[in-house]
Amino acid sequence: MSRQPLRLVIAEAERMLAACGVASPRVDAEILAAHVVGVPRGKLMMHPLVDPPVVEALRRLVVRRAAREPLQHLLGTAVLGPVEVAVGPGVFTPRPETELLLEWGLKAIADVPSPLVVDLCTGSGAIALGVAASRPDAVVHAVEADTGAMSWAARNVSDHVAAGGTPITLHVADVRWPDLLIELESKVDLVLCNPPYVPDGVELPPEVTEWDPPGAVFGGPDGLEIIRAVITSSAALLRYGGRLGIEHDDTHGESVPALLRRRKVLTDVEEHPDLTGRPRFATARRVAPQ
User: Fold this and answer.
1) Structure pTM?
2) Most CB atoms within 10 A, among 108, 142, 171, 281?
């Protein structure tokens, strides 16, 4: 068989993905093509013709994406800020909007030398790795209750350290434990958390319901079960002046700040929107008890 025009191969992939309800068919088709060809997406058109094995490899990936397997699973990685982490079945796939929480956290500790940072509900370890990559002087701890997800975090941390990054201490623990990281009590400069927060029963795309672990997505009837525990744990972990950032569902724009304000040791409560203007994460600062 002769070589085929890549633009036509991508167009056919886009058509297949659109027909199956994929939200961004053209983008996904181009990303998968770049993955198969082995070039950045922006340089695809520098390869106008592709060999039949490339066409077949792309076709197989497109069929899987059309079945709503997450794009990141097909690539094997997901990006969060400065880091790329391995992801796949058994771990929550980091979302682009979480970069806003990471950016806020890094600004919060910009003037803190050798900050002590805790990432609760770490999943793949993406937030913890984002902090460690951006602040090599930071002492970073990451907590995850699910052992399957923790295996992904351990793999990603191992790769990070092998590439010369600073170590991250991993803890298999539940944020609902009353003695969580008790050795760090009142010492932590920053707590970040992207917990399971979707209210039970909410309809979500197949990429989420069929591939993300339910325990990493759903947060009880109101979506706040884990968030309540995170606030309690964080209030104990933070030093005076320490900062807390929690991502939440876009229906929680009032409820999560209200939960934070109920804690007398937390102040400067703020709500932050994502790039579409929807409520996305809330922040607070620890103060000394009255």
Assistant:
1) 0.94
2) 142
